[in-house]
Amino acid sequence: MLVLAGAGSGKTRVLTARIARLMEDGLPPYRILAVTFTNKAADVMRHRIAGLVGHEPDGLWAGTFHSVCARILRIEADRTDRTRGFTIYDESDSQRAVKRAMEDVDVDPRRWSAKGVRARISDAKNAMVRPEEFAAAAFDPLSRVTGTVYPAYERLLARCNAYDFDDLLLRAVRLLEEDDEVREHYGGRFAHVLVDEYQDTNHAQYRLVRAWASVHGNVCVVGDDDQSIYGWRGADLRNILDFERDFPGTAVVRLEQNYRSTGAILNVANAVIARNRARKEKRLRTERSHGARVVVAALRDERAEASWTVRQVESHRDRYTLGEVGVLYRTNAQSRAYEDALRGVGMPYRVVGGIRFYERREVKDVLAYLQLLVNPADDTAFFRAIGWPRRGVGAVTLERLETARSRSDGSLLDVAAAARQVEGLPAGAARALALFAKDIGALADLVPVASSAEVAEECVRTFGLRSALEAEEDGEDRLANVDELIAGMVAFAADRRGVEEESAGSELGLFLQHVSLLSDIDQYDPEEGAVSLMTLHNAKGMEFPVVFIGGAEEGLLPLGRSAETIEELEEERRLFYVGLTRAMDHLHVTHVSRRFRAGTSMPCFPSSFLDDLPDEAIDRRMSGSPGWRSGGSRFTAHGTSHESRSAWAGSSDRDRSFDWRYDPAATRDDGPVYDYSDSQETFELACGTRIVHPRFGPGTVLSIMGDGRTAKASIEFDLEGPKTLLVAHAGLRPAG
DNA sequence: TTTCGAACAGTTTTT
DNA sequence: CTGTTCGAAA
């Protein structure tokens, strides 16, 4: 069954109800496999099924493609060349490994970036191209280089007993396709396979679905070609477009009724997505009323954008909680301005994405030690752990260690244990290496008999990690993160109590594999009373009563580097569409005329996507920073509807004072509708006035110099001390 | 030979 | 903000 389900039409509900129905008809849950896009979605689904059938769906396989594959590879470890304690390398681990592989085959890492080579290898793996096939088809220089690095990288991963993200899919497919017993086992076991967000599957994932369904053929996928936003990760829209051909006898169901958004929001979203050529024609409809028009606001810069957004959130607060507000943007870097503004007024918020918890330096450092206990072959973890805290082992020693290893064929840890026998190592370094290996060995003995948290505590103690962190600059925060990591282990163990794990790895090993596959969105708690900040990608599958989309500018949304071809531009448009359709009641889209990017302030122009918004459904606002004088009179806007975009091409910093009156609708015939209802309230700035600054927080005005746009104010901030600011740019608000 | 500070690079989206 | 690189000091 193929369910073509538009945004907000109840995709997930369909899957959940189908699983519940299967269970009610007597199918045991362990015979059902549900693949979701995030681990969180799997949890939510489990919970909802429990609500429908009255009990937990024990034994149901639900998770992401990656976590399901990791589980299969763990259970079937004996049939692979890795043990069940394998490490899962994230992108940075993988990049380090690629770099070492490049050194192994004498490719100059200055001339070729490990990052670029890794990306090529990743593409190849997702397309299921083997190293030898890749090398045979490589013609351009980067591909040739990649062709030589790829096999070396594969050898390195095997030696480290590690998989990268792509391997999890790839190796699971190989296992299923090439081992008849395995395929028949899983094919026979899974009477029903259900897949969410099918439009974002890549070739390897498609092959997985085919293999899982090889016995019963009961596949149910839901997806929406208009929400395909992972093309850059190898997602192939053909998977959904060719579904009927790949699975003969498919029933196709179309869901075009949207239960989420108001009429106005849906009008806008429909108009935007209609511009795409490569799509299945459909038109979402809603029975909800037209509702408030979609607000499109032009602001001066990202700070004005952020403070405008915060003020809008304030104005919604009587009817919505902060948890019902979502602020979405294209790039993680954009969160900064919003965070500053939110912190400035003390409004709770949470950022999803960016640097993930498990990617923090100190967390990765501790994880490297733990990884080594479970998987002593993991050289990447060895390098990381041996390098911190400093123990008198440097680059030269490590190089010699590697040379020594290439003559034996154990792991670096094995060689380190016998460091005293290695020629040419300084006595101090050899002693440190041997001690390190001995301590790791002793802790590893603890793994089978102690809980993972106990092992971690012991590890932190043995290697003096706590004191090493305490000695660091912001050691307190880092220490807190390590404590949180250990707390996470306790919670993980408690969660699993009573769950029978067929793959029976160590608790620590399972934890490590589990966190390697966690995304930030998995930790997201919608109940929290805080504004949510996240990228448009992370927002997929979510909904918010009140939504803000920032940075609707040409070059940012669509993002310049991503929109070089028509296909890429259409993917950017789908991304915008995904953002628009997250909104239930109120939707706001903002764009600015100047933005700090890549270190400099750059002039910005409204996104071409905005041209497609139907006038009757939107409410244009220009709420630049009118600024104020010490006397209190307000600036008046002079929107010039004849200024064209090209006139702005040559704008320099000197034009800045005019930015606020830049007319975003200048090229439109009907001209803009000015609305200053949301502009900053005018208020008297006088000595002693209590104010709040978006960045520096509350403060008291000491003195005012000059007036008009050049007026400056000296302000004593409660936290940051005295500062002199340009009033027109400061974005001050009255306190309280 | 190691360690450390300074300077510098890179920053699209993610499992 | 992190990781890398380079030179200098230990």
Give a quick summary of the entry.
This protein is α/β, with parallel strands linked by helices and 736 residues long. The strands form 6 sheets. The chain has a 7-stranded parallel beta sheet with strand order 13-14-12-15-16-11-19. Strands 3-2-6-7-1-8 form a 6-stranded parallel beta sheet, sandwiched between helices. A 5-stranded antiparallel beta sheet has the order 23-22-21-20-24.
Task: Using the alpha-carbon principal axes, give the shape.
Answer: globular
As laid out across the biggest beta sheet, the strand order is 13-14-12-15-16-11-19
Mean pLDDT: 82
**Beta content:** 5-15%
Question: Which bin fits the share of residues in helices?
Answer: 40-55%
**Number of helical regions:** 27
- CA radius of gyration: 28 Å
Which spans have pLDDT < 50 for at least 5 consecutive residues? 624-684
C-alpha termini separation: 57 Å
- Main beta-sheet annotation: 7 strands, parallel
Kindly state the number of beta strands: 24
| Secondary-structure content class | alpha/beta
Detailed description of the structure:
A 7-stranded parallel sheet has the order 13-14-12-15-16-11-19. A 6-stranded parallel sheet has the order 3-2-6-7-1-8, sandwiched between helices. The longest helix is centred in the middle third of the chain and has 22 residues, at 475-496. α1 crosses α2, α4 packs across α7 (141-159) and α5 (114-126) packs across α7. By secondary structure, it is of the alpha/beta class. The relative contact order is 0.11. The chain is 41% helix and 15% strand. A hairpin with a 3-residue loop joins β20 (690-693) and β21 (697-705). The protein binds a DNA duplex (15 and 10 nucleotides) through residues 37-38, 64-67, 90-92, 115, 165-166, 168-169, 229-230, 232-233, 330-333, 353, 355, 361, 390, 392-397, 426, 428-429, 516-521, 535-538, 559, 561-562, 575, 597-598.
